[in-house]
Design brief:
heterodimer, A: mainly alpha, B: mainly alpha
Chain lengths: 72, 187
């Protein structure tokens, strides 16, 4: 992996972390805004968080691209 | 010719390993999904007021941060930067350890407020206990990666051992993305 590629990958990692942190904060505010019946919103936010981790950190796309590191 | 054949064999094996570990994650997911369903079946969306939400948030961020450092570790090993790889993994181990300390503090509070005999206590200790056990296993596996004897073992061409363990660490983080709102936020 070239240094340029490494820098790009690391940048992606930081961005994903920022988005995940923002989603957790959003979950907190959703729980505060809806004292009752907040679960559908929390499920959506949790699924988005899990999707980001699976795609960018766990490289799920490697399952359908043999050299799938290119994708995430 | 021989080296080309070896390369193809290595790639095929890597593909098989990756499918295998994802099947393992799928089977593990069933366990956590069942526990999460049990949480809502047994106690609805109730949540005790004594639950320490700030601590829950703090340990969530620790785990997220440990996933970031593990990701960095994977990128560094793929680029052949072993020292940075080892440093990143060490950071993940420290952050994961702090997560477990946080869970321990939460457990000490939970034993007083909602002991295991209560409905929510049973759910809380089972879910966090199973998860913490996975974190502990992940920490031990990460620790193996940075043992002195492992120096020079992983190369940019072959680092499956590190990749598999880091994937497991991200899985532990992914599961917590569901456990945290189910226990600490839902109402």
């Amino acid at each position: 992996m070239s240094d340029e590629k490494l820098k790009r990958r690391l940048r992606i990692g930081y961005i994903v972390f920022g988005v995940l942190a923002a989603l957790k904060v959003a979950e907190y505010f959703v729980a505060k805004m809806f004292p009752v019946g907040d679960w559908p919103y929390l499920v959506i936010l949790a699924v988005i968080s899990a999707g980001l981790i699976a795609y960018f950190y766990k490289h799920i796309s490697q399952l359908w691209h043999s050299e799938g590191k290119e994708d995430g | 010719m021989v080296s080309e054949t070896n390369l193809i064999e290595t790639r095929n094996r890597l593909d098989i390993n990756r499918v295998g570990i994802w099947l393992f994650f799928l089977s593990e997911s069933f366990l956590f999904v069942a526990l999460l369903f049990a949480r809502f079946y047994l106690d609805g969306a109730k949540r005790p007021a004594e639950l320490n939400q700030p601590l829950g948030f703090a340990i969530t961020f620790l785990l997220l941060l440990s996933s970031l450092t593990a990701y960095r570790g994977e990128m560094f090993v793929a680029a052949g930067k072993e020292r940075k790889f080892r440093r990143s993994i060490m950071m993940s181990i420290v952050l994961g350890g702090l997560f477990l300390v946080g869970v321990g503090i939460e457990w000490a509070e939970a034993f007083r407020s909602f002991p295991p005999g209560t409905t929510f206590g049973t759910i809380f200790f089972t879910l966090t206990g199973f998860h913490a056990f996975h974190v502990l296993l992940g920490l031990l596996a990460l620790l193996i990666l940075v043992l002195p004897g492992q120096k020079g073992r992983f190369t940019p061409e072959n680092y499956w051992g590190a990749e598999g363990i880091i994937k497991f660490w991200h899985f532990v983080d992914l599961v917590w993305m569901f456990i945290f709102p189910a226990l600490y936020l839902v109402s």
